[in-house]
């Protein structure tokens, strides 16, 4: 399989030059490579999207998919996985989607550790509604709903995921597509809930490319991905603001397998393959 | 023969368990039993009571006056003595200390009614299993210390009765309809559905998921349904309010889901452990945009079984959300039946086994129903909350928007044709005057009917699609029409006016959070005449 095999005929309506194109390319490459390596089947791969620019991914990938609603990528993905535990379920969300409307689901899914993947296109702005602040927008941002600037410091999703017990926590940078692709592959192969915050500058409402170009660096082998305290320290190197020069680590912060969310499932087969025979007199007999 | 027993005490003293046990004993004796449960929202203390009406004839509601009061505390005596019938008696003992000692009063109760000790023992063993022995000993102490006041006949005959609550019936309906996963967040009066399924998940090979909130609950149920599981959620009005975005999603993405909405006294927190019928329009109308849906309101546990099975069948067949609308009174009261039957519709998943060439997720068909596959079967399967074309890809063109609206609307029409064959209305009794109602009020109305000369009862079960023709026919054939509802404005009356043009002027509305009784209805209906 080549990445182009996952193309659709749908017209792409992202702004020309948007880093979302690179995230799309990264996931297509990651999936094609995993298929070629015999690690996944494309017929068993499912993509779930929320609402926002990222969600158009639904139409640009030729795999089974669910165009969900704002904030609800994770419960949708969780349900899909419970309905058929054999599926590879990939969630795509935006920062408003995941960290504002869907924050409760995000924290709980980190905790549940279901075998799901969550890729967040974090452009630190509501772009499709033309420029309002999200929970990851920096202090000082002037937007259409905050003409007097955002007064609060942003949420740090990497740190939040870590303390919420996510078993795989990473940060990618859309402009570093090969590196992002490798993180995505690792996330997909991780057995458990894998979260990747993807820095995705919005070239119209929140262009952070120059800052990221200067300040991002890759986590190397010196960083122990099995060490929670080291991961949390790395997570706090950058506070998602731009008012001073801070180094921004990208790569895998933390990766440690732990027991999967079983959801007390009595069996592992796809539910639709279960043939249920009903013994009515026996079932109703319990109420005599 | 008919007797009404009130058993009351503080929360935590075992009123509910004890009343259930009394009910089961009378079912064993061949009597019909109705058991009403009344409790405030607290865990220990306060005042809980159950009212059991026991009859040689079928009975579906409780009476307002009691023949016997079983008082586990003094408050029960103080509050309820005024409703004791002439010749009635109170069983109380100031020295009771533990829950187990309640059984002393049970012993006295059954001895005073001349019930054979062995029949009660059989029920103790059924209910308490290996813990029955010490309880039986306490019971016998009470039994041996009392005198027989009146000997109740052993009716036997048709065999033992089924004794079942509305929530248990919904569970049975769901299990036999092929439910795979139940998602919920705890809320009265739906919580006992969650605990019943959880307790029996291995027995029935089902999965039970309590998630972070009702939004997560309905969305996960839709996700699991998309990947092929038959799913159900259960809640009350406050939780259903959170679920409404999921309802629109189910409608647009055409994903089957069954929702149990157990009404309590609303708005907002309202009176959370009491009953009401204030959510009728809320069940019919929630969700932004127009989309097909089903709303069905069972009137008793037998109907709850059938309507739940129908809801699963129709949700899967038409790919839409199906709401079972009940209330606390139906959910938590126990009813008795000689037999319980299941729906003949079966439990098909409506998922294609043979995979067609050129599969399209939202194929436009004559009846609006697109054949369904699930992800993993091979072809790309899409669910889309955005307007879409047949492939499921996102569109905004006027042409597709019209085509897809028409397709979804055709499903609602087809559904209406099918529910016409599923007894969308029921008529009880004979007479030229008509009582019109829906849901759990059925019990008190059916019990009142023999006392009301020249009255029929029209029960409307399918509320969406609404059986307008059938309802109007019954109304037109009647002289006097009286609306009976457990709410303050007569919501069904509004729906009937909207659907048929007929405005019902005479209304008996009860909105004190307590269910109707037959006495209350007879008294009020006689005043209207």
General description of the model:
The complex is a heterodimer of chains A (288) and B (529). With 288 residues, chain A is an alpha/beta fold. Chain A has one domain: 3-Layer(aba) Sandwich (Rossmann fold), CATH 3.40.50.970. Helices cover 31% and strands 16% of the residues of chain A. Chain A has ten helices and eight strands. In chain A, helix 4 packs across helix 5. Chain A is globular. Chain A starts with 19 loop residues before the first helix and ends with a helix. A seven-stranded mixed beta sheet of chain B has the order 5-4-1-3-2-13-6, sandwiched between helices. Chain B has helices at residues 15-28, 74-80, 102-112, 117-128, 132-145, 166-176, 191-199, 201-204, 214-226, 237-253, 280-284, 301-318, 328-332, 398-420, 442-448, 468-476, 491-500, 518-528, and strands at residues 2-11, 32-38, 45-55, 66-71, 84-92, 162-165, 181-184, 207-210, 231-235, 257-263, 294-296, 321-327, 334-337, 382-384, 425-428, 433-437, 455-460, 462-464, 481-485, 506-509. In chain B, helix 9 packs parallel to helix 10 (237-253). The model of chain B has no long low-confidence stretch (mean pLDDT 96). The longest helix of chain B has 23 residues, at 398-420. In chain B, helix 10 (237-253) links the parallel strand 9 (231-235) and strand 10. Chain B is of the alpha/beta class. Chain B is built from 18 helices and 20 strands. At the A-B interface, strand 2, helix 3, helix 5 and helix 10 of A face strand 6, helix 6, strand 8, helix 9 and helix 10 of B. Strand 2 of chain A pairs parallel with strand 14 of chain B.
What topology emerges from the helices and strands here?
The complex is a heterodimer of chains A (288) and B (529).
Chain A: H1 20-36, E1 45-49, H2 57-60, E2 64-67, H3 73-83, E3 88-94, H4 95-101, H5 103-112, E4 116-122, H6 157-163, E5 168-173, H7 177-189, E6 194-199, H8 209-215, E7 216-218, H9 228-235, E8 248-255, H10 280-285
Parallel strand pairs in A: 1-2, 1-3, 3-4, 4-6, 5-6, 7-8
Antiparallel strand pairs in A: 5-8
Helix pairs in contact in A: 1-7, 4-5, 6-9
Chain B: E1 2-11, H1 15-28, E2 32-38, E3 45-55, E4 66-71, H2 74-80, E5 84-92, H3 102-112, H4 117-128, H5 132-145, E6 162-165, H6 166-176, E7 181-184, H7 191-199, H8 201-204, E8 207-210, H9 214-226, E9 231-235, H10 237-253, E10 257-263, H11 280-284, E11 294-296, H12 301-318, E12 321-327, H13 328-332, E13 334-337, E14 382-384, H14 398-420, E15 425-428, E16 433-437, H15 442-448, E17 455-460, E18 462-464, H16 468-476, E19 481-485, H17 491-500, E20 506-509, H18 518-528
Parallel strand pairs in B: 1-4, 4-5, 7-8, 7-9, 9-10, 10-12, 11-12, 16-17, 16-19, 19-20
Antiparallel strand pairs in B: 1-3, 2-3, 2-13, 6-13, 11-18, 15-17
Helix pairs in contact in B: 1-4, 3-5, 4-5, 6-7, 6-12, 9-10, 15-18
């Amino acid at each position: 399989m080549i990445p182009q095999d996952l193309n659709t005929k749908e017209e792409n309506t992202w702004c020309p030059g948007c880093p979302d194109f690179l995230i799309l390319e990264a996931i297509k490459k990651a999936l094609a490579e995993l298929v070629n390596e015999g690690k996944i089947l494309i017929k068993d791969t499912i993509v779930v999207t929320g609402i926002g620019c990222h969600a158009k991914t639904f139409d640009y990938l030729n795999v089974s998919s669910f165009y969900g609603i704002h904030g609800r990528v994770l419960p949708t993905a969780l349900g899909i996985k419970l309905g058929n535990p054999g599926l590879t379920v990939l969630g795509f969300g935006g920062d408003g989607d995941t960290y504002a409307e869907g924050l409760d689901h995000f924290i709980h899914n980190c905790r549940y550790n279901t075998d799901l993947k969550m890729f967040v296109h974090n452009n630190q702005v509501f772009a499709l509604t033309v420029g309002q602040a999200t929970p990851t927008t920096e202090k000082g941002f002037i937007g259409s709903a905050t003409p007097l600037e955002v007064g609060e410091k942003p949420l740090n999703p990497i740190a939040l995921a870590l303390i919420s017990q996510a078993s795989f926590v990473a940060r990618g940078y859309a402009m570093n597509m090969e590196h992002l692709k490798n993180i995505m592959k690792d996330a997909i192969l991780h057995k458990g809930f894998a979260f990747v915050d993807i820095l995705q500058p919005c070239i119209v409402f929140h262009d952070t490319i120059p800052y990221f170009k200067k300040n991002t660096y890759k986590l190397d082998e010196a960083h122990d991905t099995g060490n929670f305290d080291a991961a949390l320290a790395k997570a706090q190197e950058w506070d998602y603001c731009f008012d001073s020069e801070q180094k921004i680590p990208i790569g895998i912060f933390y990766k440690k397998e732990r027991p999967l969310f079983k959801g007390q499932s009595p069996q592992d087969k796809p539910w639709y393959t279960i043939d249920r025979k009903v013994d009515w007199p026996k079932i109703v007999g319990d109420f005599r | 023969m008919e007797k009404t027993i009130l058993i009351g005490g503080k929360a935590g003293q075992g009123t509910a368990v004890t009343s259930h046990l009394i009910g089961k004993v009378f079912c064993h004796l061949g009597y019909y039993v109705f058991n009403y449960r009344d409790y405030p929202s607290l865990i220990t203390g306060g005042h809980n009571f159950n009212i059991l009406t026991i009859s040689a004839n079928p009975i579906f509601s409780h009476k307002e006056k009691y023949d016997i009061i079983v008082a586990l505390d003094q408050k029960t005596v103080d509050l309820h003595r005024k409703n004791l019938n002439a010749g009635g008696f109170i069983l109380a003992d100031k020295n009771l200390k533990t829950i187990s000692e309640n059984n002393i009063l049970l012993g006295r109760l059954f001895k005073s009614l001349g019930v054979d000790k062995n029949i009660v023992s059989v029920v103790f063993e059924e209910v308490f299993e290996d813990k029955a022995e010490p309880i039986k000993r306490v019971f016998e102490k009470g039994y041996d210390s009392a005198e027989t006041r009146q000997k109740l006949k052993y009716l036997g005959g048709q065999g033992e009765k089924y004794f079942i609550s509305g929530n248990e019936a919904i569970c049975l309906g769901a299990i036999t309809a092929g439910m795979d996963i139940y998602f919920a967040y705890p809320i009265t009066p739906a919580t006992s559905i969650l605990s019943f399924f959880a307790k029996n998940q291995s027995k029935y090979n089902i999965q039970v998921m309590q998630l972070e909130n009702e939004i997560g609950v309905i969305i996960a149920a839709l996700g699991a349904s998309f990947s092929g599981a038959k799913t159900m959620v259960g809640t009350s009005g406050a939780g259903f309010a959170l679920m409404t975005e999921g309802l629109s999603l189910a409608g647009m993405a055409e994903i089957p889901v069954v929702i149990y909405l157990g009404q309590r006294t609303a708005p907002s927190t309202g009176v959370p452990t009491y009953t009401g019928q204030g959510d009728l329009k809320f069940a019919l109308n929630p969700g932004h945009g127009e989309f097909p849906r089903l709303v069905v309101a069972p009137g008793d546990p037998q109907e709850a079984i059938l309507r739940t099975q129908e809801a699963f069948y129709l949700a899967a067949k038409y790919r839409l959300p199906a709401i079972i609308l009940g209330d606390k009174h139906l959910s938590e009261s126990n009813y008795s039946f000689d037999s319980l039957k299941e729906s003949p519709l079966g439990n098909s998943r409506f998922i294609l086994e043979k995979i067609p060439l050129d599969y399209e997720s939202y194929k436009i068909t004559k009846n609006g129903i697109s054949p369904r596959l699930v992800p993993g079967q091979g072809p790309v399967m899409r669910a889309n909350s955005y307007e879409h074309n047949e492939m499921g890809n996102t569109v905004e063109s006027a042409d597709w928007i019209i085509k897809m609206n028409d397709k979804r609307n055709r499903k609602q029409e087809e559904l209406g044709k099918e529910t016409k064959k599923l007894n969308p209305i029921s008529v009880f009794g004979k007479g030229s005057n008509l009582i019109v109602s829906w849901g759990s009020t059925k019990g008190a109305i059916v019990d009142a009917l023999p006392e009301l000369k020249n009255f029929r009862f029209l029960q409307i079960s399918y509320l969406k699609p609404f059986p307008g023709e059938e309802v109007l026919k019954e109304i037109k054939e009647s002289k006097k029409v009286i609306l009976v509802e457990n709410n303050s404005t007569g919501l069904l009356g509004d729906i009937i006016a909207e659907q048929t043009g007929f405005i019902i002027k005479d209304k008996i509305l009860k909105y004190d959070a307590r269910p109707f009784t037959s006495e209350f209805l007879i008294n009020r209906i006689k005043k209207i005449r």
